[in-house]
Amino acid sequence: MTDTRIGDVLQLERIPVEVDEAATYSQIGIRSFGNGIFHRDPCLGSELSKLKYFEVHPDRLVVSNIMAWEGAIAVSTDAEKGLVGSARFLSYRPIGDVDLRYLNYYFQSLAGVSLIRSISTGTVTRNQTVSPKNFERARIPLPHLADQRRIADKLDSALMKQREIKDRVSARDTLVNHALDAEESAIIADCLERGWQTSPLSSVAEVNPRTVRPDDEIRVAFVPMAAVSGKRGVIDSPDYKLAGEVRAGYKLFRRGDVIFARITPCMQNGKSAIFEDPSVMYGFGSTEFHVLRPHDASDTEWIHRVVRSRGFIESAIPFMSGTAGQQRISADYLRKVNIPIPPSAVERVRVIQRMDDIQTRRERFRELNMKQGADAKALKSSLLDAAFGGRL
């Protein structure tokens, strides 16, 4: 084991790309936490940023100079041949007895992350930059090449199994949620087959009603989009302010209203909730919420269940308008879309209970999946620590 200067085993490779505005280019990106290189959608040279661009070649250690502190380091493969990277990506070729896989794994370990953070500069946590000079001056413990390869081979094998576990967890999550979505849709279909009528949503709720702004000294809840759980359909941890502290331009709603995200991907992710905070009467939130105010408070739970359902969301997607990534569903669509209307309070309660049962099972499964996902993530950390602590 020798204390080695990184610049003695790696050399920065910069092969400039003369950008042709009419040509098509594919750029690389690097995921944080050691999750590898990804390819951005092809674009014209005229659509590239003003940064300089360089060729990307296989078998290079590629370092994101702005996100390396968060593990955005990876080894390029044949899949990256012919792609380009902006000046934000430092591409290093080996010039000494070094296995790039070993180095990459080292930089994902606690010791490696600590080293990268110690040589990164910047005043803001998420704006830490590592320069080629600082990176190349840094020193790392480097065993003989044969030991590097042995450790890298073991990590390759162990982490492949870890990725297989994560893939199975993800696939199972997709399968179970699709099955529960189908069960939910079957409940609605059964209601319609048994004679439930449909009616425009506006017949049971006012869409984006006018609400008199509360006096400045009234305490209100502040609900940004991030405070709405798409998984559970509830408001998590709103902020509280005086109404006078909330500037104009936010959506105003009151207790008993349903808020419904109108923009992609928030709508697709199920971000809707009933505003039922017992401590305040009014709330302010993102302008990307539509507000639904039921004509009859007894319909609130049902309206929320309907607009949260996967069937309702999927049927709304084709009617969104706007540019990709900024598509929205209009208030007019919500006013006109037909929804099932329970024929009685007894029927409404019965169906809500069945849908609640689905949600309970969904949450239990999610908790199990999250635990198994966390276990897989912890396994990777344990393996890296063992490898660079001399225990592998």
The best one-word shape is elongated
Report the count of strand segments.
24
Rounded average pLDDT? 93
**SSE class:** alpha+beta
Strand order of the largest sheet: 2-11-8-9
| Contiguous helical run count | 8
- Helix amount, in percent? 25-40%
Low-confidence stretches: none
Strand content: 15-25%
Taking all Cα atoms into account, the compactness measure Rg is: 27 Å
Q: Tell me about the biggest sheet?
A: 4 strands, antiparallel
End-to-end CA span: 15 Å
Describe the structure concisely for a colleague:
This protein is 35% helix and 22% strand.
Question: SSE layout and pairings?
Answer:
Layout: E1 2-5, E2 10-12, E3 24-25, E4 28-30, E5 37-39, E6 43-44, E7 53-55, E8 61-64, E9 73-75, E10 84-86, E11 89-94, H1 100-108, H2 110-119, H3 132-137, E12 139-142, H4 145-193, E13 197-200, E14 205-207, E15 219-223, E16 228-229, E17 234-235, E18 239-242, E19 251-254, E20 258-261, E21 272-274, E22 282-285, E23 289-294, H5 300-308, H6 310-316, H7 331-336, E24 338-341, H8 345-387
Parallel strand pairs: 15-22
Antiparallel strand pairs: 1-12, 2-11, 3-6, 4-5, 7-10, 8-9, 8-11, 13-24, 14-23, 15-18, 16-17, 19-22, 20-21, 20-23
Helix pairs in contact: 1-2, 4-8
Defining traits:
8 helices; single chain; 392 residues; elongated; alpha+beta; four-stranded antiparallel sheet
Describe what this molecule looks like in 3D.
The protein has 392 residues and is of the alpha+beta class. Helix content is 35%, strand content 22%. The protein has eight helices and 24 strands. The strands form nine sheets. A four-stranded antiparallel β-sheet has the order 2-11-8-9, covered by helices on one side. Helix 1 (100-108) crosses helix 2 (110-119) and helix 4 runs antiparallel to helix 8. It is elongated. The two termini are 15 Å apart. The model has no long low-confidence stretch (mean pLDDT 93).
